[in-house]
Amino acid sequence: MPQVLAIERRSYNAPWSLAMFVLETAKSGGLCVVARAFGAGARGSASGVALVGYAIVSKYDDAFHVMNVCVDPNRRREGIARGLLEHVIARAGGNEARLTLEVRPSNASARGLYDDLGFLSVGVRRRYYRDDGEDALIMWRTPATLEGRTYDIPGAEDEGMGGGRPGSKGPVPPDMPDLSGPPPRRDRA
Questions:
Q1: Which of 8, 60, 78, 114 is catalytic?
Q2: Among this protein's residues, is 151 annotated catalytic?
Q3: Rounded distance, CA 19 to CA 23, Å?
Q4: Burial zone of 141 (CB within 10 Å; 0-12 exposed, 13-18 middle, 19+ buried)
Q5: Cβ atoms of residues 39 and 50 within 8 Å
Q6: pLDDT tens digit string along 10-59?
Q7: FRET partner for 47 with CA separation of 20 to 30 A, picked from 1, 26, 41, 175?
Q8: Where are the alpha helices (DSSP H) in the chain?
Q9: Is 114 a catalytic residue?
C-alpha cells in the first residue's frame, strides 16, 4: 500500500486517503489491479519490483464502477492505464460487462482512452471534484455503447453518437461546450 499512496499523492491535488483505499478494496466483488515494473531499474522496492499503476473498481448490482485509475507520473503515455483497464474489462465480463466512471472534462487524454475502450459520455455530475469544484462527465461502457447507443444505461436517452465531440463521444450535456463544430445557435425569446 505505501507505493499506491505515493503514486496517488504525486498524481492528485486531492488524493485518496489510506482509509479510502481500505474502504474500497474491502468491498466484496470489486476488482483491484496493479501494474508492476520488473528489473534492476525498477524504483520503489528493495526487491526490484515497483508498482507503476493501479485500478480500483467497485461492484454494484449489475455494473462495475471504476473508482480510481492512476499511473505513476513518470510512467504515463506508456499504455499502462490502457492495460489496467483492458484487464478490468476482461475480468468484469468483456463485451457483456457494464462499467461506469467519472472523468474531468479537462482530462482530454483520459477521455480519449475511455473513448477508445468503448465508453460514452451520458451526463454530468455537477461540482464533483472537491479540490476545484470541476464537474465530472459520467461515462458508461456497456454492450449498447459498443454500438454507439445508450439504451441499456439507466436515465440516458438513446441518441446514438449524435452531439459527440472528440474525447467525449455520446450526447454532450447542454451546458458543456460542443467543440466538434460551429457554436450552437441561440435564439432570443
A1: 114
A2: no
A3: 6
A4: buried
A5: no
A6: 998 888 999 999 999 999 999 999 999 876 455 555 556 789 999 999 99
A7: 26
A8: 2-11, 18-26, 80-92, 108-116
A9: yes
